[in-house]
Amino acid sequence: MIKRTLNIIPLLICFSISVITGCEYFNPTQVKQYSNRPDLDCIVANDFYAMHFSVYVQPKNADSAKDKNTFVPYCQEIPIEGQMFFSADLIDRDIRETPIKVRLVEVEYKNENGSESINEIRVLKEVEQKLYTKGIVEAQADIDKKGSYILYLLIGEGIEEDDRFKIKLTVGDNSKQYLIISIGAAVLVALVLIGWLIRMIYLKKKAS
To answer: In terms of CATH architecture, what is 31-172?
Structure first.
């Protein structure tokens, strides 16, 4: 039994290492955001519209060519600040014939009386209303600090709530990633200690 357990320990350690090293490529999905992995499609939707969405980042540092985050597609969780390139592919062909205004704002969320409210801090980008007949809405802006942002696509007059298409963005929040790394590291340490204790018990019994 002890020998069998000792054989399993290395496999569990390898699994823990794979969790720690691989978790930086995975972020948990958000509500109505169907992917935040570069190798999967990202679809953002409300009750009336759905769009393929992606964000590319050019980091602010001078050595951006070697930065692993350079021009990697992200969904709504973006790990670093920098020059952002936004692209939304309009799945619904009808709205390609409707003018759309683009607006990017920094926001903060407040919980008042059990309901969430949005407070706009500053406007980073505005693109006046125009037609996107090819179905691709593109914009770029320099996001210079971590925080919460909303990219609005105001469809038509943008009066109805569903016509104020909101894409919520989080820049620089890696708390979930660090939590996964911490859990993986704790599991790895625990397995090493368990393996060491089992080996000590086994050697002691063998010696006696």
So the answer is: Sandwich (2.60)
